[in-house]
């Protein structure tokens, strides 16, 4: 079977860079390819492909005499191809999770996956409206127009009610729903990463469970700052939950997820 040298060299540049976090030279890459059990490609051939990949914008050189690193776009394509989310990870060791989060420089939030139906609304002495969501509840100040509006929304999910509150400007209800969702956060560490990435209102959103709406399927990319996020369903200490992780596109997310899988 013929080896696609371009793909082989590019993938090994990425893997070598993830492993050592240093620009990859032709000699180092040659050794790395052999270590991986792949074909023995001479350093001279690798240098030819370095030029081709650089011209394509797949890799870049940080210094005149230095090695190459994959570009941010290359890393985004790599993670879209390599990260799989078809297996629910069991997270039981919080100490290991925290070690990985800080070692790799990742923001991590885990929250209960709950989206209960809006099941009932009750008026309390013309002072409060009591909203029930299966096994959860919240209250807001009484307003006859708001009560009538909400009566028409009975049966929708908590997420849908949150969106409705944003669309019609029910700020008190929106705040109360956020508070309810925040009470379901199990784990949240290394928030400073969020402050490094975002410099606007997105900071607040990224610290809330509703941040998951920023993701297309399981991944989100912020190319301008070379950061990305992943979202995956997990079992956290036996409970169904969602884990969101955000960090540099150059973090080794395969190592992160595989280490958690192995520990479970």
From TrEMBL:
InterPro entries with a match to the protein in the record: HrcA, WH-like_DNA-bd_sf, WH_DNA-bd_sf
Transmembrane segments: none
An annotated GO BP: negative regulation of DNA-templated transcription
GO MF: DNA binding
Key words, A-Z: Repressor, Stress response, Transcription, Transcription regulation
Protein name as it appears in the record: Heat-inducible transcription repressor
């Amino acid at each position: 079977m013929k080896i696609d040298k371009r793909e082989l060299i590019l993938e090994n540049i990425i893997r070598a860079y993830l492993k050592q976090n240093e620009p990859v030279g032709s000699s180092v890459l040659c050794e790395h390819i052999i270590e991986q059990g792949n074909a023995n490609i001479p350093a001279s051939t690798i240098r030819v492909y370095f030029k081709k990949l650089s011209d394509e914008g797949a890799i870049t050189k940080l210094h005149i005499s230095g090695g190459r690193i994959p570009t941010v776009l290359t890393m985004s394509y790599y993670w879209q191809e390599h990260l799989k989310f078809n297996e629910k990870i069991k997270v039981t060791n919080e100490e290991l999770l925290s070690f990985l989060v800080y070692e790799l420089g990742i923001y991590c939030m885990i929250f209960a996956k709950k989206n209960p139906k809006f099941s009932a609304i009750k008026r309390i002495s013309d002072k409060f409206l009591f909203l029930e969501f299966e096994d959860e509840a919240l209250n807001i100040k009484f307003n006859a127009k708001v009560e009538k509006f909400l009566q028409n929304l009975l049966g929708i999910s908590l997420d849908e009610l949150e969106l409705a509150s944003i669309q019609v400007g029910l700020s008190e209800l929106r705040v109360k729903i956020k508070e309810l969702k925040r009470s379901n956060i199990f784990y949240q560490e290394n928030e400073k990463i969020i402050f490094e990435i975002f410099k606007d209102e997105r900071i607040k959103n990224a610290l809330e469970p509703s941040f998951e709406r920023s993701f297309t399927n399981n991944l989100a990319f912020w190319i301008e700052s070379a950061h990305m996020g992943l979202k995956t369903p997990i079992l956290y200490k036996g409970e169904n939950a969602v884990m969101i992780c955000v960090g540099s596109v150059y973090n080794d997310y395969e190592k992160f997820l595989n280490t958690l899988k192995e520990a479970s």
